[in-house]
Amino acid sequence: MTRTQIEISLGILLVLITGTVTILYGFNEENRMTTLAQAQQAQSIEVGAGLFETYCSPCHGKQGLGTPGLCPPLNDRYFFDQRLKDVGWSGTQEDYIVATASGGRLASTRPDQYPGNGSPAMPAFSDRFGGPLRDDQIRNIASFVMNWESTAQEVQAAPAPAGPAVGTDIAQTLPEGNAQAGEALATSAGCVGCHITTTTGPAWNPTGGQPGIGERATTRYTEADYTGAATSTEQYLLESIVNPGVYLVPGYQDIMPKTFSESLTPQDAADLIAYLLTLK
């Protein structure tokens, strides 16, 4: 066999090998792309989880179960099965999440359950609307929320208090409070989401040269602009819990749930007050 014939044979062999490899690679391309897409989705969910905890969980809860009277649950069967129908959204669930998180919501669509009419019900998070997040970060949050779709259960309403409700009488005599129990209740009821981890409500901890709520409450009810009926520190704190709209701290909106007078017992209220008094 001449050298030319050898070179031609080698060339044909290389072409056949290259073609075979290309064909085999092509057969596997769909699986490769699927694996790549799954990896990218997993990364998006992981990034979204961190962003959700920072920006969304203070109101919607770390597990997306919402805050009764303040923010609706997202890890909820209703959210995935019925929400889009109720608001008339014709796009995808993920795009609805992106749109809502990007532009916020000026008014509550369920004012009987959650506040917001007349004031922003949810701030805009997209940097295109003055928020802190890029579009890709909001898409990551949406990916994380969508991750709950297959496992979401129907979120039940807050259970009735284990005893008579505390009501709105701020002059009543409460039992002795337990600060440790009050701290746990403040966390489970979502109070810390607005008063500690974000600036949605007046800060409970010392901040900006101001003392904590436990010290501020001792004089707040004596100030000239106070519009409530409290005559003591304990009454002021109780009033702030069970009748929060009677006096608004300057600079804050009337968005605190009005349901605590019905969902808390006198012992619950006493525990919360005992805890607040420790925050000097």
Major sheet: size, sense and barrel closure? none
Work out the helix count.
11
What's the total count of β strands?
0
User: Oligomer, anyone?
Assistant: single chain
Provide the number of structural domains: 2
How much of the sequence lies in strands comes to under 5%
Radius of gyration: 28 Å
Which runs of at least 5 residues are low in confidence (pLDDT < 50)?
Answer: none
**What is the first-to-last residue Cα distance?**
97 Å
Could you report the average pLDDT, rounded to the nearest whole number?
87
| Structural class estimated from helices and strands | mainly alpha
Bulk shape: elongated
* SSE series: HHHHHHHHHHH
CATH class of the largest domain: Mainly Alpha
User: CATH H-level name of the largest domain... which superfamily?
Assistant: Cytochrome c-like domain
Offer a few descriptive terms.
280 residues; Cytochrome Bc1 Complex, Chain D, domain 2; 2 domains; 0% strand
Would you kindly provide a written description of the structure presented here, covering whatever features stand out?
With 280 residues, the chain is mainly alpha-helical. It has two domains: 3-146, Cytochrome c-like domain (Cytochrome Bc1 Complex, Chain D, domain 2); 179-276, Cytochrome Bc1 Complex, Chain D, domain 2 (Orthogonal Bundle), CATH 1.10.760.10. It is built from eleven helices and no strands. It has helices at residues 3-60, 77-81, 83-87, 93-103, 135-146, 179-188, 191-195, 213-220, 233-242, 260-263, 266-276. Helix 1 (3-60) crosses helix 5 (135-146), helix 6 crosses helix 11 (266-276) and helix 9 packs across helix 11 (266-276). The radius of gyration is 28 Å and the shape is elongated. The model has no long low-confidence stretch (mean pLDDT 87).
